[in-house]
Design a protein that fits this description.
Number of strands: 5
Number of domains: 1
Number of helices: 3
CATH class: Alpha Beta
Radius of gyration: 13 Å
Largest sheet: 5 strands, mixed
Order of helices and strands: EHHEEEEH
Strand order of the largest sheet: 1-5-4-3-2
Helix content: 25-40%
CATH superfamily: Ribonuclease toxin, BrnT, of type II toxin-antitoxin system
Distance between the termini: 26 Å
Shape: globular
Length: 91
């Protein structure tokens, strides 16, 4: 898989959430919980992936086209998202 992103968005995300898109590939190396983000009509298929990174549940919004994952945002999971992630591990 190849990871891409908008560099300006990466810098904004790093400042706001403290997570660097550069680390996204580490997230996809482990056991993930991914679902389609259907909250809005984005004009493209988007996904949300939950996984552990440095012992914290991380949420990555992204698109997938071929062998490319384009990272849109990356942040720490909310309490609810953490519960969803850990419940997915037990299923």
């Amino acid at each position: 898989m190849r990871f891409t992103w908008d560099e300006n968005k990466r810098q904004l995300n790093l400042g706001k959430h403290g997570f660097d898109f550069v680390d996204a590939s580490q997230v996809f190396e482990g056991v993930t919980f991914t679902f389609e983000d259907e909250r809005y009509a984005y004009g493209e298929q988007r996904f949300i992936t939950l996984e552990l990174l440095r012992r914290r549940v991380v949420v990555i919004a992204h698109t997938e086209v071929g062998d490319e994952i384009r990272v849109i945002s990356m942040r720490e999971g909310t309490k609810r998202e953490q519960i969803i992630f850990f419940q997915s591990l037990s299923n």
